[in-house]
Amino acid sequence: MLRLVAVTLVLAGVASANDNGKAIRPPLGWRSWNLFGANVNQSLITSIMDGVARKSGTVDGKATSLCDLGYCDVGLDDNWQKCGSPDAAPGMHYHDKDGNPIVNHDRFPDFNAMTSHAHSLGLTSGWYGNNCICSDHCKTPEECDKQIEADVKALRKYNFDSWKLDGCGNEKDLVTFNKYVLQTGRPITVENCHWGVVKPFKPDPSLPPAEGCPWNFYRSSGDVRASYASVLNNLGTVVPLASQNLSYPGCWAYPDMLQVGCQHGPGGSRDPGLTMEETRTHFGAWAIVSSPLTLSHDVNNATITAQVWPIISNTEVLEVNQAYVGFSGNQFKKSSTMLEFTDAFIEANANEVRVQAPASQFFYKPVLANGAKIAVLAMNSDSSTQTLSFKFSEVPGVTCTKCKVRDIWNHTDLGAMDGSWSGQVASHDAAFLVITPA
C-alpha cells in the first residue's frame, strides 16, 4: 500500500508525548468543516467515506485511493448535535441532566451505522466535541467532569476512532478527557483545537505525558481560510513552536486543516479559494513543518479531484511530511522585505488585522539522519515571479558543498550544484527541493 511511505523515526531525546501510541507520524485524513461547514448529515459523510476509499486517481500508473496514500480518517465536524433539545439540562443546549450529548437524529439517524461503514472500507471515523455551534458551558468542575465522562462514553458507544475537541464550550480540561479515554481501553487520536490561545493550547515537556500533552496534535492558530493571507498567517504560528522543538511524534503542531480545493466554504464569497500556485505552497508548507494533513474538499467532485490530485498524491512530498529525525522542520531564512496581505474577511471585520509576511521565506526539514537528505521549501510571496536562492551552508544540517538537488514537485533531478541553489519561482508559488550529498 502506498500509505506506507518510507520514513525514519528517531524518538530518542524527544520531549514526552501523549502515551496513547497514536500519531507517531503526522496524521492524514479528511474533515468536513472547511468546505461544508454546518451543512452536514450522515448521507454526506458516508458518501465522503466512499470517495476516500475509491481508487479515483493513479500514482505511478497504479489505481490509487486517498486512503492508499494515508488519508484514511474521515472526520465529522460541528453541527451533529441537537441544539435547543427539550431533553437538555437547564442552561445547556445539547447535554442532558446526566451529561450525555444529544444527537440530532434528523441529520444523523445512526452514528453506529456511519462508523461501521467507515470500518468496512478500511477507514477510521472521527468525531467532534466541545462544540462551537450552540456551545454548552458547564458551570462547575463537577458538572464539567460529568459531561466529559459522558461524552467519552458516547464516543466509545458510537465507535469513533478520533476526536477533535474545540475550544468554544467549557469542556476545556483535556487532561480529564484523556484520563477517561484511556480508561475505556481503546486509545484514540485526539486533536486539541484550542486555536493557540485557549489553555491548554501547547505542550509542556516538564510535565508527565498525560498532563503535558494529553492530545496527539494541537492547533497553533485560529481557523485557516481559503485565502493566501490566511495561509501565511497560520503558517507563521508554527515557527515559534518549532523553534522550541515543541512539535514531535505524538504531539504535532497544527496550523489547521487544508484549504486545498475548497472554494466558497463556510466563508462564502469571502473564501474565494486559492490559486493552484497558492494551493501548492499551502500544501508544501504544511508538509515541511510536519503538520497533520487534513483535507476538506469534495472528494466526489471529479473536476476538483483532478485539479488537486497531483499535489495531494505526491508521494515524495508525503515522504517529507511523514519523516522524523529529531526535528519537525522550520524556517531558516527570510527576506528583509515585508509585504502586507489581506482578504475579504479581514477587510469586513474591524477586529482583524492585515497579515505581514516576508516577500520570500525558506523552510527546511531533515528527512534522513546526518544530513543524508534534507528538504527545502522556497516560497515566493511577491506579486511577480522572482529569482530565489540559498547557500547550502545556510541550511541547517546540510554538510555537502557540492550537493545533488531534486525538484520533488516535478519528480526531476536538477543535478549537482556547487555551493548554492538558485531558481525562478512564480508569484505565490514555492519550489520544493531535496538536497543530498553529491
* Unreliable stretches covering 5 or more consecutive residues: 1-14
**Percentage of β-strand residues:** 15-25%
Write down the Rg: 21 Å
What sort of overall outline do the alpha carbons produce when their principal axes are compared?
globular
**What is the CA–CA distance across the termini?**
31 Å
What is the strand arrangement across the widest sheet?
9-8-7-6-5-4-1-10
Structural class: alpha/beta
Number of strands: 20
The biggest sheet, with number of strands, parallel, antiparallel or mixed sense and barrel status, is: 8 strands, parallel
Please state the average pLDDT score. Answer: 95
Helix content: 10-25%
Number of helices: 12
Structure description:
The protein has twelve helices and 20 strands. The strands form five sheets. It has an eight-stranded parallel sheet. A six-stranded antiparallel sheet has the order 11-14-15-20-17-18. 25% of the residues lie in helices and 23% in strands. The two termini are 31 Å apart. Residues 1-14 have low confidence and may be disordered. With 438 residues, the protein is of the alpha/beta class.
